[in-house]
Amino acid sequence: MILLQFIVVLFFLYLGMRVGGIGVGFAGGAGVMVLCALGATPR
Questions:
Q1: Chain-centroid distance, C-alpha 3
Q2: What is the pTM of this model?
Q3: Which of 4, 11, 24, 28 sits at 20 to 30 Å (Cα–Cα) from 38?
Q4: Residues 29/37, Cβ–Cβ less than 8 Å
Q5: pLDDT per residue over 7-20, tens digit each?
Q6: pLDDT number for residue 37
Q7: At the top level of its lineage, which domain of life is listed (predicted)?
Q8: How far apart are CA 16 and CA 8, in angstroms?
């Protein structure tokens, strides 16, 4: 599960880098939503 979460984080970092500007914030928010949907919780 940790590997899947790491891949999701890397994907959304890459997506935010490609979009730039306000897209970085949107990509970060989308990444958090996906991680929550996968069942990740803050520790």
A1: 13
A2: 0.75
A3: 24
A4: no
A5: 999 999 999 999 88
A6: 92
A7: Bacteria
A8: 12
| Residue 7, token pair as written in the block | 């891949």
25's tokens: 């914030």
Rounded CA-CA distance 17/24 in Å is 7
Residue 39, both tokens: 């069942």
Q: The tokens 């599960």 sit on which residue?
A: 1
| The dihedral formed by the CA atoms of 9, 10, 12 and 17, expressed in degrees to the nearest 10 | 140
> Are the C-beta atoms of 22 and 30 separated by less than 8 Å?
no
Cα–Cα distance for residue pair 36/30, rounded to 1 Å: 10
